[in-house]
Each structure stands twice: as C-alpha cells, then as structure tokens.
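Lab notebook: predicted structure, single chain.

Context: the supervisor wants predicted structures on file for every construct in the current expression panel, including those that have not yet been purified. This is the next one on the list. No modifications to the sequence; it matches the entry in the shared construct table.
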Amino acid sequence: MIRVNIHEAKAKLSEYLEAVARGEQVVICNHNRPVAELKAIPAEAATKPPRPIGLAKGTFTIPASFFDPLPDDLLDAFEGKAPGRPASRVAEKAATYDVPRRPKKRRR
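Prediction complete. Output recorded below exactly as produced.
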C-alpha cells in the first residue's frame, strides 16, 4: 500500500495511476490522515460498450403547448419581481451605472 499526501499526489498523479493499474493500493492523506483511495476500474466496466443514442425514441412526444410563452406572473417569479408589479418585456433596456472615476495620483 502506498500512502501519499495531497501535495505529492497532485505532483505525481500519473505515477500513482500507473501503480494502481499494476494492482497496488494508493491512499491519499491530508496531514497524514487518510481521506481517499485510488482504485482501478474493473476490466468489465472499462470494456463495456457505451449505450447507443436514441434508446427512448418514440416513447414520448412533446406537446405543442410546451413552446407557448410563459405567463408574465411566472416570468416575474423567475426574475424575483414582486407579484402585481407591471413589467415591460419588450425591448427592456439594461441598467447602466455611472461610476465616479478616481483622480490620478501625481508622481513626485
């Protein structure tokens, strides 16, 4: 079993991954207290083929109402605005802030 502190594990991670691939156990410590263990992935999990895309094709449909605009009160709730307060949604102008500039310091 190999015990290493976090700093050393970060610096030599590739070496410890090779050791794990060879079958050794690597324990990562924080101030000499074990906090994590590096383990190899079982061979059957590493060679398992990825799931194909589109397995659920045709099992559900998205209704046309999904694309309808949300009501104003729900949009206000997302934006954190108080209910009943009118809000304009057309061409809203972003807030601009005037920040006073500091005077430049004089060189001596």
